[in-house]
Amino acid sequence: MDGQYYNEDDEIGATVPPERFGFNSWGNLIYTNGAFTAGVRFEAYDPPLLGYPAGQPYDGAGIGYRYASYSIDDLEVTVGNFFEQFGQGMVFRSYEERYLGVDNAMDGVRLKFRPRPGVYLKGVVGQQRFGFDNGFTKGPGLVRGIDAEFSLNELLPSWSEKPHNLILGGSFVSKYQEDRDPLYVLPENVGAWAGRANFISAKWNIYSEYAYKINDPNNKNGFIYKNGQGLLVNATYSTKGLGISAGAHTFDNMFFQSDRTAPTPFDLNINFLPPLTKQHTYNLPATLYPYATQPNGEVSYQGEIFYKFPKDSKLGGKYGTKVTVNYSAAFNLDSSLVENDEGLEGYRTNFFSPGERTYFKDFNIELRKKLSKTWSLAYTYLNLVYDIDIIQGKPGKPKVYANIHIVEGQYKFTDKNSVRFEVQHLDSKQDLGNWATLLAEFTFSPHWFVAVMDQYNYVTPGNEFHGSEPNRIHYPIGSVGYIRGGNRFTASYGRQRAGIFCVGGVCRNVPAANGLTISVTSTF
User: For residues 344 and 323, what is the distance between their CA atoms, to the nearest angstrom?
Assistant: First the structure.
């Protein structure tokens, strides 16, 4: 249960909604008896917190999820709601990200069958959750899909003793939506397929997946009749004290929603396009300039090296030193408009070829060091290039160039009591200018924790950079929490800065707010 009481705060642009208190609540109850499982989730939004959810508004209280499932002779049957994913989700991913308000649960039937060891088959059919109005509501489209996966270690006797494994898979998904458009002749059945391969050994993991979608005119691509495609490749190597990863992907016209006129990019998504940028957890990079995948077109690269200098070495010292270097970049597609476009294809692209526009760059270095039994420190540096016009939809805004420095430390008073602190600084001459963040968190195990944080926007473009008085705004907030068994109680009071909240490369806008927030989580 999350509740928030709102105060008006003109300095940060926080307004009070008609209902001064927002409330999000949900509870899952799952019953299992042998091979039979059934579950139900009750949800209440009376009304929802400001800025929640990411897509279609939620309202009221009722049943948001219910299902029954049983297994017999390697066959699993589920009726009702379910979440599922084929491969990396490039053609199908039904999932929930509760704190973003993303939920495209299927409502229908799912079959999983293992005809023999090493062969895994899936089939799904149903409609997607669209929103919540005193119970979940469904979108107009019908989604159908099949997936097959083969694990050679299990399937072939000659592979069973090998120190590595190769997993092959393929998927096909289609959506059906009636064409009622008075202007266009729209395809009512749109299909997409994908193939994947994953090589796994003690030190290596190499994964690749290719997806192709037939023409799917929709309001996200301007109703063009162009096929879509995507390719991703990831490779990791790990051994004691060393880890190396590299990846690349390209997506072209890969918005895939069960309603071609879905109101927002968060509603009724059939697929999921994995991000290829580091998902930061520190406040400034995570909430000011996070990157979200551009489904209509991007080429992206990422590489990371992790190394731990061993204990008692010159650079490792008594406890060792951990170093991580990461670089990622995303670009537009190398494309050209189609002249005399009678087929309404819109544009053509050179496959996996980046264009001249840089959407995002992130170069970061992280050092982690345990200094003694009581002290540990970490330092992180980030250099960002951020096309705020494209990523956050702010036309005409200049590209952001930012440097971020972060120092994190922890001191243990005893085995149960400790303090953790963060000092963060961002400097930029674009967008919101310079920021500083201070955080201190005190833990008194096993029950209590107290945290205080202040964000300070102390230099703002258009003011200090142009010789006028700056807008110096503080965003203080304090929190206290109590944990007992399966129960967790948290209360916070202060300012919430307007910005972006992201999980796994999916983001939503969070409005400015001032007030009291209370959260209760219980597991039994």
Answer: 50
Confidence of residue 47 (pLDDT cuts 50, 70, 90): very high
Residue 143 lies in a domain: yes
**Residues 105 and 92: beta-carbon distance below 8 Å:** no
Give which of 167, 163, 147 is closest to 155, Cα–Cα. 167
Which H or E run contains 255?
none
Closest CA to 358 of 326, 324, 383: 383
Distances (CA, A) of 95 to 80, 196, 514: 15, 20, 31
Burial class (CB in 10 A: 0-12, 13-18, 19+), 115: exposed
383 vs 415, more confident: 383
The residue type of 277 is T
Backbone conformation region of residue 149, classed left if phi is above 0, alpha if psi is from -120 to 50, else beta: beta
* 198 and 291 inside one domain: no
- How many Cα neighbours within 13 Å face the side chain of 496? 26
Give the containing element (helix H, strand E) for 388.
Answer: helix 388-391
Instruction: Tell whether 10 is covered by a domain.
Output: yes
DSSP per residue, 331-381: EEEEEEEPTT-TT---EEEEEEEEEEEEEEEEEEEEEEEE-SSSEEEEEEE
- The answer to the question of residue 448 being in a domain is yes
285 and 415 together in one domain: yes
Pick from 491, 510, 427, 405: nearest CA to 12: 510
Q: Would the pLDDT of 367 be above 60?
A: yes
| Residue recorded with tokens 């999000």 | 24
CB count in 10 Å sphere of residue 281: 7
Give the Cβ contact number of residue 503 at 10 Å.
Answer: 16
Which one-letter DSSP state was computed for residue 398? P
Backbone dihedral angles phi then psi of residue 204, each to the nearest 5 degrees: -115, 145
Please give the structure tokens belonging to residue 452.
């205080």
Element (H, E) at 476: strand 473-484
Give the separation between CA 357 and CA 335, rounded to whole angstroms. Answer: 11
Domain CATH number, residue 490: 2.40.160
Domain count, the chain: 2
298 with 215, same domain: the answer is no
Among 37-46, 262-271, 366-375, 463-472, which stretch is predicted with the lowest mean pLDDT? 463-472
> HEC states along 448-473?
EEEEEEEEEEEECCCCHHHCCCCCCE
* DSSP state letter for 497: -
Q: Is 427 exposed, middle or buried (0-12, 13-18, 19+ CB in 10 A)?
A: middle
Domain of residue 3, residue span: 1-22+277-336+347-524
Which pTM was predicted? 0.89
